[in-house]
Structure formats: C-alpha cells, structure tokens
C-alpha cells in the first residue's frame, strides 16, 4: 500500500510573493484526477480541499497548496493520443510553428524540447518532418510508449537542475513546448527563469498551452480546479508574467479558436531581443466584476449539474458519463449525487474493474455501452463531442441521447442536437 501524498502550504503569491492573497472558491475534499482505484480495494484515499485564491497585487488566480506528486506522476498514464481530434491539433500546431518561424531553417537542424511530453504525441509530427526531438516526462509508462515511437525522453520532473541532464546537443533548443503542463508547475517563475537561460536567444520559440481562466469563468468549468494545477491565467496575467521574466508573447492566435482544444489558452513567446520579439502586448486588465461574476456562476453551475442528474438518472432511465479524464473525474467528485450515474465511459480506461476517485462511479470502455444500453450520455470531454457521437452512432446511439457538460453547467438541459 502506497503512502498518501503529503500537502504543503504557501505563505504568499506564487508569482509576486505578495501576502495580499484571498480565497475566492473552495471545493471540499477533492481527489487527484488520475487516482483511480480497484472496486474491491479498502485502501485509504487521498482527499483534500481545493481552495482557489486570487492575488490582489498581480491578479494571478492560483492554489496555495502543493501536493507531493512525484510518485503519482511516475505512474501517470493520461494520454489523448488515440483521439483523432487531438492528433489533428498536434499536427496543426507543429506545422504552424515551423511554417511561421522556421521557414528558412533546415528542419534537421531544429531542436524541439517538450516538458511534460507524455507519450510523445506532440513531438511525433516534429520528428516525422525531420526535426530533432527530446521529451521530459515524469511517467515511466508514458516514456516507454514514447520510446516505441522513436522519441527519447528524460524521465523526471523538470526543475532548475534539469538543464544539466540535457544532452549536449539539446543545451540550446530552438523550440520548447508545454501542452497543459505549465499550469501544473508549482514554481512557474523559477521554471521560466530556467527556460530563458537555455532557449535559443536569436530565434527561440516557447509554445505554451494552458487552461484559460476566461473560459473557466465563462463556462463555469470548476472541474479544472485540481490539486495538480497551480495557476490559472488569462491573457493579461500570462503577458504580465512572461514580460517580467524576459519573454515577449508574440501571439495568442497561432491557431484559430476553431482548431484549438476545448479550454485552451495557447500562446507563443520568444526571448526579448530575438528576431521575433516585438513591443509587449498589453491585454486589458480584468475588472472586479470579472472575478465576482465568474465565482458566482461556478457556484450556480454545480447546482445546475445536480438538478440535471436528478431529472435524468432515475429508476426508469439510465445516465452514463463519457470521459474519464480530469473533467469527468473532478466534476463527479464535486457533486453530491454522482452515484446516480450508472457508469463513466472512456475510450481507453486506466484499467479493468476500476472506479473513479471519490465518486466511486465504475469506469468502463466503450464496449460496455454496447452491451449495457443507457438512455442518456453526459459528455464531460465536450471538445470531442462530434467524434464521440459519430463513434457511438455505429453502435445504435442517437444524437439526441447526448448532452454536453458545458451546456448542463449553464442550466441548458436540451440535447446538444435537439
């Protein structure tokens, strides 16, 4: 039996170190997103409050606690590699970066380093076109899968000492990527200082994809408040942070919104003084109303979701969830009536005979929906809604049986195609 992770607490803002940090949201007794467990286990379960704060000096929204996740990430298995939508996004991003910033460079000379590289899915299109690639990833399982694709990875958490472990030919990478990794870092300031030292000063590109606080508030996506996340940025706070640490954000529009993932703040930065560096962008400072309305809508959305489940999961009607990633797990964990769902479905479950953390809803693969029919499906991974409906339509499910989480949080109980 593994010991439960320990929790430590901060005494000031992660970014500016101010003590002027105040609580705005609290989700009681929440699990880690990937802490699935066997149905028949009696092991203790990690549960701790997720409290979200705002720094009133730099406006960064953040947690003020760190969970020791070294062992947790060593066994981490999350991957979107089998999703057609995710694969398309990763191909588009790599193509756009190369065609925008490296048109005159020999592709075989371009060095691409990804921090939090997972199974190598985002590095694969760079490798295919001829770039040199290297991953940095704490999960041994995902490092092994990446190796099978021909992608070498250094296993471990990226720290200020990590550059010492890079091979000599990667001491000065041209491109550094972070896909939903930057907002997991407990110390983003030290990370950016470290990256600024190694990224190619003349033509270096830093591509970061994180969860967008604007969209979290707009869609009431409280499920993205996780123990694994440390900060929640919008365009203003991202620009402020990068400018402070030697970078210029040169675009938030490397891809159109229609090509981005469900909740994506995707930006390209470069070292100040590089050939791509421009005058600093100045996004609008969020108003007080921005924060107060966002918090209000989140509190209201949990009630909307519980009302939906109350009405659609009854003795005569079966409701299943789809998507056992962070959205599904954390949404269920925040609810009081999650147990009314018959099952949580995923294209690639983390194992057999498992249950979701805290809610203990059983998790199955798609074949379960074929053998055990349900009346309605609540799609947590709504960014892949069309893809999911198309796949399950081959097994007799109709479009009006599907509901999108983002609509339910707003109180819209109509089927997405109704």
Could you write a compact summary of the structure shown?
This protein has 418 residues and is an alpha/beta fold. Helices cover 28% and strands 21% of the residues.
Q: What is this structure's SSE topology?
A:
Blueprint: E1 7-9, E2 21-30, E3 37-38, E4 48-55, E5 61-63, E6 65-67, H1 70-74, H2 84-101, E7 111-115, H3 124-128, E8 132-137, H4 140-148, E9 153-155, E10 175-179, H5 188-198, E11 205-210, H6 213-219, E12 231-232, H7 235-244, E13 247-251, E14 265-271, H8 288-312, E15 319-322, H9 326-333, E16 343-345, E17 354-355, E18 362-364, H10 366-371, E19 376-379, H11 385-393, E20 402-404, H12 405-409
Parallel strand pairs: 7-8, 7-10, 8-9, 10-11, 15-16, 15-19, 16-18, 19-20
Antiparallel strand pairs: 1-6, 2-4, 3-17, 4-5, 5-12, 11-14, 13-14, 17-18
Helix pairs in contact: 6-8
3D structure, described in words:
- By secondary structure, the protein is of the alpha/beta class.
- The chain is built from twelve helices and 20 strands.
- Strands 3-17-18-16-15-19-20 form a seven-stranded mixed sheet. Strands 9-8-7-10-11-14-13 form a seven-stranded mixed sheet, sandwiched between helices. A four-stranded antiparallel sheet has the order 2-4-5-12, with no helix packed on it.
- Strand 19, helix 11 and strand 20 form a beta-alpha-beta unit.
- Helix 6 packs across helix 8 (288-312).
- The longest helix is centred in the C-terminal third of the chain and has 25 residues, at 288-312.
- The mean pLDDT is 92.
């Amino acid at each position: 039996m593994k010991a439960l992770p320990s929790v430590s607490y901060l005494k000031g803002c992660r970014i500016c170190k101010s003590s002027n940090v105040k609580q705005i949201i609290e989700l009681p007794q929440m699990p880690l997103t990937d802490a699935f467990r066997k149905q028949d286990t009696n092991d203790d379960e990690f549960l701790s409050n997720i409290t979200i704060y705002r720094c009133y000096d730099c406006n960064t929204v953040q947690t003020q606690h760190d969970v020791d996740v070294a062992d947790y990430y060593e066994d981490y298995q999350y991957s979107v590699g089998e999703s057609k939508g995710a694969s398309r996004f990763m191909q588009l991003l790599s193509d756009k970066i190369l065609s925008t910033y490296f048109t005159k460079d020999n592709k075989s000379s371009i060095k691409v380093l990804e921090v939090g590289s997972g199974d190598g899915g985002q590095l694969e299109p760079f490798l295919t076109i001829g770039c040199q690639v290297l991953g940095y990833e704490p999960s041994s399982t995902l490092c092994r899968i990446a190796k099978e694709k021909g992608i070498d990875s250094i296993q471990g958490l990226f720290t200020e000492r990590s550059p010492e472990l890079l091979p000599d030919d990667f001491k000065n990478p041209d491109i550094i990527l972070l896909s939903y990794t930057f907002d997991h870092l407990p110390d983003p300031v030290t990370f950016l200082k470290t990256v600024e030292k190694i990224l190619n000063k003349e033509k270096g590109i830093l591509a970061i994809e994180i969860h967008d606080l604007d969209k979290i508030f707009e869609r009431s996506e409280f499920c993205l408040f996780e123990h694994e996340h440390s900060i929640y940025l919008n365009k203003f706070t991202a620009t402020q942070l990068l400018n402070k640490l030697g970078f210029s954000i040169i675009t938030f529009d490397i891809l159109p919104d229609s090509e981005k993932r469900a909740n994506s703040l995707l930006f390209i930065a470069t070292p100040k003084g590089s050939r791509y560096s421009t005058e600093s962008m100045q996004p609008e400072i969020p108003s007080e109303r921005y924060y107060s309305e966002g918090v209000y809508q989140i509190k209201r959305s949990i009630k909307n979701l519980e009302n939906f489940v109350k009405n659609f999961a009854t003795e005569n009607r079966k409701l299943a969830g789809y998507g056992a990633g962070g959205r599904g797990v954390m949404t269920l964990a925040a609810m009081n009536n999650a147990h009314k769902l018959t099952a949580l479905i995923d294209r690639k479950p983390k194992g057999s005979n498992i249950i979701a953390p805290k809610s203990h809803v059983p998790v199955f693969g798609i074949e379960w929906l074929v053998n055990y029919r349900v009346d309605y499906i609540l799609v947590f991974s709504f960014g892949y809604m069309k893809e999911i409906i198309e796949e399950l339509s081959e097994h007799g499910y109709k479009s009006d049986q599907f509901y999108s989480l983002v609509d339910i949080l707003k109180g819209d109980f109509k089927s997405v195609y109704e």
